[in-house]
Amino acid sequence: MIAIIDYKAGNIASVSNALTRLGADFCITDDVSRLNDATGIIFPGVGHAYAAMQALKEKNLDEWLKSTQKPVLGICLGMQMLFDFSVEGDTACLGLIPGKLEKFDNSKGKVPHMGWNTLRFAADSFLLKGLSVEDYFYFVHSFYAPVVDATTASCFYADVDFSAVVSYKNFHGVQFHPEKSGAAGTKILNNFINYVNEGKE
Amino acid sequence: MVAKRIVPCLDIKNGRTVKGVNFEGLRDAGDPVELAKRYSDEGADELVFLDITATNEKRKTLIELVDKISRHIQIPFTVGGGIRAVDEIGDLLNAGADKISLNSSIVTNPDLITQAAAKYGSQCIVAAIDARRSNDSWLVYTKAGTHNTGLDAIDWAKKTAELGAGEILLTSMDKDGTKSGFDNELLKKVSQAAPVPLIASGGAGTIDHCIDAIKLGEADAVLAASIFHFKEIEIKHLKEEMAKADIAVRLNF
Q1: Could you give the angle at which helices B207-215 and B235-244 cross, rounded to 10 degrees?
Q2: A198 belongs to the catalytic site
Q3: What is the ipTM of this complex?
Q4: Which residue, A3, A150, A164, is CA-closest to A70?
Q5: CA distance A153 to A188
Q6: What does the alpha-carbon distance between residue A65 and residue A54 come to, in Å, rounded to a whole number?
Q7: Nearest-CA neighbor of A76 among B124, B91, B219, B78?
Q8: Which of A113, A155, A172, A179 is flagged as catalytic?
């Protein structure tokens, strides 16, 4: 059973609809005991980093996420929250992946980075199985994570190469919205579900 | 490289698509979900649903429709048409819409952009602007193009972005329905004035028109209705031709 973390800062409808289409066994919850029962966690996120961090803290979900050993997939702001710090609202994030989120420079490109973009592959990842540089993914964001050791794929926009897919220990994240990225995005979600079900990489 | 987007637009009334739709192979061409799926399969990058229902039941039927679309479509979609309250925007986003397009309501109440953007993020707020040329400038019209606001379209576009709109959907009323090409002069001025993505609308008739909107008009996306509804241009073919013109487009779908 996959649990989608519900902390009122994510577009849960799109992610849950995508999992329904894939026939995945999942629940939507903010209850720690149900999270403890899950085999994998999807951590969505839309909106402002500071508001999202506050919402997590209110439910003690920040502490739960920091200590879990279960596979976690952060999506969009959910991925960003895995990093140390965001200049968006000068927010201390979960600190699971080293790095600081910056804002795109709007003299270099329109902000938000909104639309379909391709990836540059940096390292092997189970999430990227079956995908190529020809595949496009749907991005919507104004802040970006730097390329770090955890980066398995990056994306280039507004003169910046930033993290598009990350994996560090049991924490994984995608900056784009796989649930909105057509067939390519469906493969990413399927790769995560299969990984969780197999319980191994 | 970020791809330029092709965006079919569907007009909705009482939960059904209106205007003639000429699609073979659809059981029911009036079903927005079925049509949306078809466009998605053919390579549309995004969809816009414009609700023109004018009844009291509108809000409920629109939310039901958005919920249904979200269950079946794996690409982003925008919903617009007479939306004027922050909580209404919230309900549509919660039902699964990715973006909300606001038009007349933000002219009378510009603060709505700021409030909605603060609550849900700029990325989901689209400022829809209907503009008509007047000598050397363009003026903003509202209420389905019937009311001249006197606002300069380029200034208004810039202001909507400053207030928090994350995207502009710009329709040339002079070009809309003519199939004579987009108003590339207007597009270019708005694209350079407002630092947010720009969707070109009004005037699509040929593949070259769409290419020109991007190359001359500097648009980030091209919206059209009838050329897709009547299959005058197939989305896949359009994208292949755009790729030949050195425009980055999403061909794997």
Answers
A1: 50
A2: no
A3: 0.88
A4: A3
A5: 13
A6: 14
A7: B124
A8: A179
Tokens of B45: 């990058």
Token couple for B134:
């007047």
Helix (H, G, I), strand (E, B) or coil at A154: strand
Backbone angles phi, psi at B161, to 5 degrees: -65, -40
Cβ-based neighbours of B68, under 8 Å, separated by 6 or more: B33
Across the interface, whether the CB atoms of B96 and A11 are under 8 A apart is answered yes
Q: Which residue, among A110, A137, A156, would best test binding to B if mutated, counting the most B CBs under 10 Å from its CB? A: A110
Where are the strands (E) in chain A, listed by range? Answer: 2-5, 26-29, 40-43, 72-75, 83-86, 91-92, 97-103, 113-117, 120-121, 137-141, 143-144, 151-157, 160-168, 171-174
Count the Cβ atoms, other than its own, within 10 Å of residue B87. Answer: 8
Phi first, then psi: give them for residue A189, nearest 5 degrees: -65, -40
Chain B: closest CA distance from residue A14 (Å) = 6
Distance from CA of residue A185 to its chain's centroid?
12
On whether the pTM is more than 0.90, the answer is yes
pLDDT in tens, B87-120: 999 999 989 999 999 999 999 999 999 999 988 8
Pairing of β B147-152 and β B137-142: antiparallel
Instruction: Report CB contact under 8 Å: A48, B121.
Output: yes
Tell me which amino acid residue A182 is.
Answer: G
Residue A138 sits at the chain B interface (C-beta within 8 Å):
yes
- Cα A161 to Cα A111: distance, rounded to the nearest angstrom: 15
Give the whole-angstrom CA distance, residue A61 versus residue A38: 14
Average pLDDT of the residues of chain A: 93
Enter the DSSP assignment of A19. H
Closest CA to B186 of B160, B219, B163: B219
Sign of the four-CA dihedral B197, B202, B207, B209: negative
Domains in chain B, ordered, with CATH? 5-244 (3.20.20.70)
Cis peptide before A112 (omega within 30 of 0): yes
Q: How far is the CA of A191 from the CAs of A7, A128, A158, in angstroms?
A: 24, 8, 29
Cα angle A159, A165, A167; round to 5: 135
Which residues in chain B have their CB less than 8 angstroms from residue A135's CB?
252
Highest mean pLDDT among A51-55, B51-55, B135-139: B135-139
B183 is catalytic: no
pLDDT of A10 reads 63
DSSP assigned state of A179: G
Residues making up chain B, counted from first to last: 253
Edge-first strand listing for the sheet containing A40-43? A26-29, A2-5, A40-43, A72-75, A171-174, A160-168, A151-157, A120-121
A156 with B123: Cβ contact below 8 A: no
